[in-house]
Amino acid sequence: MPDDSAEDEIDYYHLLTAVDDFAFAALKISLSEPERTIVVSRLREDWMADVGVIGVLRRQHILTRSIEEPARTYWLSRREPLSPRIESLLASFLMNLASSLAYDILKELANDGYDVARLLRGRGIDLSLVGGFIGQIDVLTAHVRTFLALHRAKQDETRSEEVRNILSNVLEGQRLKLNVEDVDAAVELLMKNLEPAIRGVIAEEMKKKNIYVDTKANGVLTRGLGVSPGLGYGPPACFDPENPESIPKNVVLLIEGKTGTFALSCLEAAVAIITWDCRETSHVPVMCRGIGKPAVITAREEADMLLRRKFLVVDGSSGLIRSFRIRPKDLGFPY
């Protein structure tokens, strides 16, 4: 988190709250039961962008970088300080975590060439602020783990005394000392679910705004020679001459142009073809034009780099080959 001044910290807080809707929507589908019902209930009852319990706690957490300070503030404000709404504190840290993940994903999308600035302008956020954002995911995950452990212990009547002792220590200014069940598996599951959920929420928002990649974007990996017009995208796969029938469907097929024997079904199964060591009149490009498959001739040295990408977009007209971390179709890409 920023270290310059209290004013910078407040700006950081407002930056976090600007994507609260992403965070809240993702948390609703990422949390597992019983925490999902309980924590989402606290979010609904307490949470607003700048006011309400969770807003106050989130701001204090950012200003102090402490678990204990927001916990003490909240617990001292309760009429029954030894029986607090631990779920409200857990919800506060979850919102910070989900919002931080959202910014990490927005930075990735900006680097991939999506017009993230247009998405953020309506929220009063400058893209330069997003680029410098440091979310401290590890710290926030540790705080979620702490309060998830407290929440679970609180549900167990046999451990109520243990929870009261922990809360008393905090009220006396001591650091939290936990000796409760391991919640690593629950936190791991949450993190596994939360990132794709946020990606999906952001994708839906971008689709609504018809945001797509600029042709000059960083998503462009290379420009080859377009030898068969059309557009196609999918995960890359390399042609194996020893097992020509093993090519899965709906892939971008990388195949050497001098390959002597291959089944036509291999080209038909692919959505696009990338080839090398050949010319426009070579066998592979001619076959691609014959069956209407987009194809680009590129350099042999680029094949390994292209195979390491998750998704490729091949433009057989311009020769452009792009790469994205998520499916362009999911973000309203025009193909």
Contiguous low-pLDDT stretches (5 residues minimum) are 1-6, 213-218, 330-335
Sheet/helix structural class: alpha/beta
Cα Rg = 26 Å
> Roughly what fraction of the amino acids lie in strands?
5-15%
Q: Portion of residues in helices?
A: 40-55%
Task: State the separation between the terminal residues, measured CA to CA.
Answer: 39 Å
Description:
With 335 residues, the chain is an alpha/beta fold. It is built from 14 helices and nine strands. Helix 13 (283-291) links the parallel strand 6 (272-276) and strand 7. The longest helix is centred in the N-terminal third of the chain and has 26 residues, at 86-111. The protein is elongated, with a radius of gyration of 26 Å. The two termini are 39 Å apart.
What does this entry show, briefly?
The chain has helices spanning 6-17, 20-30, 35-46, 53-64, 68-76, 86-111, 116-121, 127-131, 137-155, 160-171, 184-208, 264-269, 283-291, 303-307; strands spanning 220-223, 225-228, 231-234, 236-238, 252-256, 272-276, 295-297, 311-315, 320-324. With 335 residues, it is α/β, with parallel strands linked by helices.
Helices and strands in order:
Elements: H1 6-17, H2 20-30, H3 35-46, H4 53-64, H5 68-76, H6 86-111, H7 116-121, H8 127-131, H9 137-155, H10 160-171, H11 184-208, E1 220-223, E2 225-228, E3 231-234, E4 236-238, E5 252-256, H12 264-269, E6 272-276, H13 283-291, E7 295-297, H14 303-307, E8 311-315, E9 320-324
Parallel strand pairs: 4-5, 5-6, 6-7
Antiparallel strand pairs: 1-9, 2-7, 3-8, 8-9
Helix pairs in contact: 1-4, 2-6, 2-11, 3-6, 4-5, 4-6, 6-9, 6-11
